[in-house]
Amino acid sequence: MTIKKQQDGNVLTWTNGTGSNVTAGQLIKMSHMLGVALVDIANGSSGAVAVEGVFSGVPKVSGAVFAVGEKLIWDISANTNTGAFDDSAATPATGDVTGGAIAWVAGTDGQTTCTIKLTPGNATIT
Q1: In total, how many domains does the chain have?
Q2: Residue 97, beta-bridge partner list
């Protein structure tokens, strides 16, 4: 059997079944993986989602403090229920994703955005 490369694997086509439209640049939860929508994706439609890379301007829990390289928690109930990253000292709640990203830049108290690196294949859901 011959193994053949299909693609680099940093972008996939995702079908939006969330019940809401997704806008380009929005972080989305896809089962055990996090991604960033590269285009607007209407509910029921499909579009390109980055599953690897470094992204800035990502929502952050304002009180979270974290170091470069720290494994982050995607808190789905934070930021008016659109989600935000919290530090690893936080206790994940049901549906939160741990390990889908690491801090690319240190996060300080009071910040509401952060810079993260997506880390596919390392996440767990609470």
Answers
A1: 1
A2: 74, 125
How far, rounded to the nearest angstrom, does the alpha carbon of residue 81 sit from its chain's CA centroid? Answer: 14
Whether the Cβ atoms of residue 24 and residue 40 lie closer than 8 Å to each other: yes
**Mean pLDDT taken over the chain:** 93
Tokens of 106: 């240190």
For 60-109, write each residue's pLDDT tens digit: 999 999 999 999 999 998 877 689 999 999 999 998 999 999 999 999 99
Token pair of 118, please? 């997506």
Q: Does some domain include residue 85?
A: yes
Radius of gyration in angstroms for the set of CA atoms belonging to the chain, rounded to a whole number: 15
Provide the residue type at 40 as one letter: D
